[in-house]
Design goal:
It is built from 5 helices and 12 strands. By secondary structure, it is an alpha+beta fold. It has a domain of 167 residues: Oxidoreductase, molybdopterin-binding domain (Sulfite Oxidase, Chain A, domain 2), CATH 3.90.420.
Length: 260
């Protein structure tokens, strides 16, 4: 009596089973590679963070970050043009910006306010708001962009800082300007090119009305080619400077130039 012949699977079934096994093996290989790659990437990331955490500080920022900020500044200054204007908007788009004094609006007696000017031709000056308002009146509707992520289109009125500097020129040619809000213990350093941009204003009105204390009365800087951290409020001193001046937020680790 002959042996029974083993049941033979169809060739197509055998091929499918083989393919399934190969796919499964490939998936296992890929899973192992992904696990190893992920572990390597995680280790490299941790090592990188540890390396950054141990770097020395330079101007209140770890030096690799400070180098990146310096590169960004060189790039931004290289691209800056006096003729490149920030976008302007219709008056209907204007809104009231938030009060970013963060519940610490300074209490100032406006009748006692004056603007101290240092480094100008003829020596130190004390200027009144009327002195500023005697300069050509300029209105513009531009966007105030905060480094915190919010922005607001605002209607500003004031005098061009360039007109101010032409009326009260520095004693000699200088590359920088420093502004202080003495009562707020706040100060900014500015490059002369940005100060002379045609949209940079010493503003004394917002929304067609005099500035309120919440928004920098009686005089603030509006410089739409830079982030809001440079738009100093309640200016009490302007100083022409031959040297790069200090800047409040740059000393906290932010970008000194803060250009848009």
């Amino acid at each position: 009596m002959s042996e029974p012949t083993p049941e033979r699977l169809p060739d197509a079934q055998i091929s499918t089973d083989a393919n399934d096994e190969e796919v499964e093996r490939a998936i296992h290989r890929m899973s192992r590679r992904a696990l190893v790659s992920g572990a390597v990437a995680l280790g490299a990331g941790w090592a990188g963070l540890r390396w950054l955490d141990t770097r020395r500080e330079e101007d209140q920022a770890i030096w690799p970050l400070r180098r990146v900020l310096q590169f960004n500044e060189r790039l931004a200054r290289g691209l800056f043009r006096q003729t490149a204007r920030a976008p302007e908007f219709p008056l209907s788009a204007a809104r009231m910006p938030i009060n970013n004094y963060h519940d610490e609006t300074p209490d100032i007696e406006l009748s006692d306010w004056s603007l101290e000017l240092l480094g100008a031709r003829g020596g130190r000056r004390a200027l009144s708001l009327d002195d500023i308002q005697q300069l050509p009146r300029v209105e513009q509707v531009t966007e105030l962009k905060c480094i915190e992520g919010w922005s607001t289109v605002v209607h500003w009125t004031g005098a061009r800082l360039a007109d101010f500097m032409d009326r009260y020129p520095p004693e000699r040619e200088v590359p920088y300007v420093r502004m202080d809000a003495e009562n707020d213990d706040y100060y900014v350093g500015l490059d002369m090119e940005s100060c002379r941009h045609p949209q940079t204003l010493l503003a004394y009105e917002m929304g067609g009305k005099p500035l309120t204390a919440e928004h920098g009365a009686p005089l603030r800087l509006v410089i739409p080619v830079k982030y809001g951290i440079k738009n100093i409020k309640l200016i009490t001193r302007i100083a022409y400077s031959p040297h790069r001046p200090g800047d409040y937020w740059a000393e906290q680790g932010y970008d000194w130039y803060a250009g848009l």
